[in-house]
Amino acid sequence: VQLQASGGGLVQAGGSLRLSCAASGLSITQYTVGWFRQAPGKEREFVSSIRWSGGSSYYSDSVKGRFIISRDTAKNTVFLQMNTLKPEDTAIYYCAAGRAITSTVRQSNAYNYWGQGTQVTVSS
Fold first, then answer.
1. How many helices (H) and strands (E) does the chain have?
2. End-to-end C-alpha distance for the chain, whole angstroms
3. CA distances to 2, 22, 28, 54, 107 from 25, in Å
4. pLDDT per residue over 1-41, tens digit each?
5. Taking the mean position of all CA atoms in its chain, how far away is CA 39?
6. Of residues 105 and 122, more confidently modeled
7. Residue 105 burial class via C-beta count within 10 angstroms: exposed 0-12, middle 13-18, buried 19 and up
8. Can you tell me the distance from the alpha carbon of 78 to that of 73, in angstroms, rounded to the nearest whole number?
9. How far apart are CA 9 and CA 117, in angstroms?
C-alpha cells in the first residue's frame, strides 16, 4: 500500500492550494482517507476526511468553510482544496487511509496507512 501526497508549496495568505493523495494497493472506495497536519513544535492534528461509504466528509473547525475534500474513484485519488489560506495553516500535510468510522474519523490511530507528507507554507 502506498499513499503519495503532493501539491504542497509556498503561497501567500489568502491564496489557494490543492493537495492530492494518490493511493495504490488499496481502493479509496473501501477505506476512509483523511488529511492530518503537523506544524513545527505541535502535535499532529486532524484536518479533514472522506468516508469510504457514501463519501461523507468531515472537517476540523479550523478549516471548515475554507477547505474542501473530494475524491476521484476512477483515479483512486483524494483531493484537498485549500482556500483562503492563513499563516497558521503552515504545516506538513499527511494523507492517511484506514477503516475509520464516523466516531473515529478524527483520530489518527484509526488510520493504518500513511503517506510521506507534503509541506504547505503560507506567508503573511
1. 0, 11
2. 37
3. 6, 10, 10, 21, 22
4. 999 999 999 999 999 999 999 999 999 999 999 999 999 99
5. 14
6. 122
7. buried
8. 8
9. 12
